[in-house]
């Protein structure tokens, strides 16, 4: 096996070990459940109650919103929590690169988000008239969306903070505004012009669009553009996460 | 013996503060190397740089020939680390804690299971492997850290204050295991405040002070720095001899009295003690207590770390 293949194999193994550790430790932590599961439920209820909207029409938005909150909830919890418990030092002094550690955090966000997004899909399919017309695009939207959202979460966890709640606060400051400009509650085409200008900078816009197509609804962006943009967001956010985490690590923070 | 750790001009600045200033030393294979220093001297910063937690500002070090700046992962593959604070994963079981470190080091499944079973048994944790680490006492958590550090079969073990604040049994067990492992060839880098511990198990000791290495040698050689401070301590029944008589003994430098006790400073305490016994015999004096005293490593440590700030202890 070439040296490069060995390196990648070692990095992948390290990332999976980290992802497994995160799953065992953090999936059931209260902040993850509150910000990842309860938040989208309450947003859904606030949006739906008293409004004459067909329930099947809001299923894709519900799935995208659940994915947004769940996949991006792991990163902002893991690093600050581990920095405070000083277990972070154990990880970075092990023979696993920082890149692999962060990839593990992304994978754990991806798995958490993808698994929990099944709940609104099942509820939507059983309780409403919603139907999946393109499973491939639905799965593609969920996987690529979860990857980019999890990478965003890991990036947001980079600044050193004395308490994990400070990072959760920061992550909500970023996640909440994006929620309102990404066509979740109102299709992008019906949003005011300024919001239509802003929506392309949100990965949630593209993931929501793909999920909408998966449920047989009309897309705002071309499918190829959504796929490309989600891949680009994942790469850019992960690159930024590696860079900022490395910067703080070098300072011993 | 070949050097497994070579530190070259290692420097770390935090803004204007130079925490570690062009530090140089080597640690030989199979050696127990003690790294001592007062709080804030730079020892933890040095260890954090060597173990990859912190980047050096200048200089570098190699671990088993791997440069910590250029081949950080290669360097870390050889290390087992037990930090001062037992930072175990509290919500993972004892077994999962050990497995996690083994998996991060890429230890094959069969080997890691076998090694973990052996080490947990050795460290008295065999029956607690299903317990959450949260349920362990401080001493047991430190044993778990040692177990996690050793499961990958490291060549170099970094121990940062491994027995600080532990119960006597845990501290003794950890020291014993470290000694046994060292006998089997493990190189140990020990950071400690416990001078007796350093004196007991270290082959060589470096004393770091204000970011600089103040001294580096075997404990015996370091004690030679204060050779002039060796003395014979004697107490007589009734009145003892006059100072003038005592100063006439061979190699005597000075006499000090502390209540009933006489301190006879001499570069050769054994020879002076024999001569003193002869004097007592000749003059019909009764010796109640007689002992020779050498400066301890702690005396040397205090001398080296206080001499530029305040009056030295000796």
Distance between the termini of chain A: 37 Å
- Report the sheet-strand fraction of chain A: under 5%
- Which percent bin holds the helix content of chain B? 25-40%
The overall pLDDT of chain B, averaged over residues, is 88
State the secondary-structure class of chain B.
Answer: alpha/beta
The unreliable regions of chain B are 310-314
List the helices and strands and how they pair.
The complex is a heterodimer of chains A (about 250) and B (about 325).
Chain A: H1 3-26, H2 30-48, H3 55-71, H4 75-85, H5 87-92, H6 98-127, H7 135-156, H8 164-180, H9 193-198, H10 203-214, H11 223-250
Chain B: E1 3-14, E2 17-28, E3 32-36, H1 43-50, E4 58-63, E5 66-67, H2 72-76, E6 79-82, H3 94-104, H4 109-122, H5 138-150, E7 156-160, H6 168-183, E8 187-191, H7 195-201, E9 204-209, E10 212-217, H8 219-223, E11 231-237, H9 243-247, E12 254-258, E13 261-265, H10 269-283, E14 286-293, H11 297-306
Parallel strand pairs in B: 3-8, 3-9, 6-7, 7-8
Antiparallel strand pairs in B: 1-2, 1-4, 4-5, 9-10, 11-13, 11-14, 12-13
Helix pairs in contact in B: 3-4, 3-5
């Amino acid at each position: 096996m070439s040296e490069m293949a060995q390196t990648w194999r070692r990095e992948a193994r390290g990332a999976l070990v980290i992802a497994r550790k995160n799953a065992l430790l953090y999936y059931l932590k209260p902040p993850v459940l509150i910000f990842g599961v309860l938040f989208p439920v309450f947003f859904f209820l606030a949006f739906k109650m008293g409004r004459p909207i067909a329930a099947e029409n809001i299923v894709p938005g519900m799935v995208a919103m659940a994915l947004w909150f769940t996949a991006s909830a792991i990163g902002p919890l893991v690093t600050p929590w581990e920095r405070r418990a000083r277990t972070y030092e154990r990880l970075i002094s092990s023979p696993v690169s920082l890149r692999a550690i962060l990839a593990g955090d992304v994978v754990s966000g991806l798995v958490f988000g993808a698994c929990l997004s099944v709940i609104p899909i099942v509820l939507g399919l059983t309780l409403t008239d919603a139907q999946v017309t393109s499973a491939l695009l639905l799965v593609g939207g969920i996987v690529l969306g979860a990857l980019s959202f999890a990478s965003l979460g890991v990036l947001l966890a980079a600044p050193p903070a004395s308490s994990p709640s400070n990072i959760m606060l920061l992550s909500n400051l970023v996640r909440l505004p994006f929620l309102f400009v990404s066509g979740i509650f109102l299709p992008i085409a019906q949003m005011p012009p300024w919001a239509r200008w802003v929506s392309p900078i949100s990965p949630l816009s593209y993931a929501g669009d793909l999920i909408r197509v998966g449920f047989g609804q009309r897309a705002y962006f071309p499918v190829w553009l959504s796929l490309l943009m989600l891949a680009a967001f994942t790469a850019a956010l992960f690159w930024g996460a590696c860079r900022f985490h490395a910067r703080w690590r070098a300072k011993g923070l | 013996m070949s050097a497994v750790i070579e530190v070259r001009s290692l420097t770390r600045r935090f803004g204007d503060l130079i925490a570690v200033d062009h530090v140089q030393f080597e640690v030989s294979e199979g050696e127990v190397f003690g790294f001592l220093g007062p709080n804030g001297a730079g020892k933890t910063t040095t260890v954090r740089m060597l173990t990859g937690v912190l980047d050096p500002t200048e200089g570098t070090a190699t671990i088993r020939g791997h440069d910590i700046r250029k081949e950080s992962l290669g360097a870390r593959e050889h290390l087992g680390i037990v930090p001062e604070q037992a930072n175990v994963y509290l919500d993972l079981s004892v077994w999962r804690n050990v497995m996690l470190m083994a998996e991060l080091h890429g230890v094959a499944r069969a080997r890691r299971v076998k090694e973990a079973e052996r080490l947990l048994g050795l460290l008295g944790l065999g029956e607690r492997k299903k317990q959450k680490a949260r349920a362990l006492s401080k001493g047991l958590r430190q044993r778990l850290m040692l177990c996690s550090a050793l499961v990958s079969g490291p060549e170099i073990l970094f121990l940062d204050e491994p027995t600080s604040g532990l119960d006597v049994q845990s501290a003794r067990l950890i020291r014993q295991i470290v000694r046994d492992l060292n006998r089997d060839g493990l190189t140990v880098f020990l950071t400690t405040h416990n001078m007796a511990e350093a004196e007991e198990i270290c082959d060589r000791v470096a004393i770091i002070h204000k970011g600089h290495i103040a001294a580096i040698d075997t404990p015996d050689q370091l004690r030679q720095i204060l050779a002039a401070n060796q003395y014979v301590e004697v107490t007589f029944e009734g009145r003892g001899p006059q100072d003038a008589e005592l100063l006439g003994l061979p190699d005597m430098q000075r006499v000090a009295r502390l209540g009933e006790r006489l301190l006879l400073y001499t570069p050769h305490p054994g020879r002076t003690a024999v001569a003193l016994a002869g004097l007592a015999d000749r003059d019909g004096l009764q010796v109640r207590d007689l002992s020779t005293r050498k400066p301890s490593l702690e005396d040397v440590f205090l001398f080296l770390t206080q001499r530029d700030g305040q009056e030295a202890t000796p």
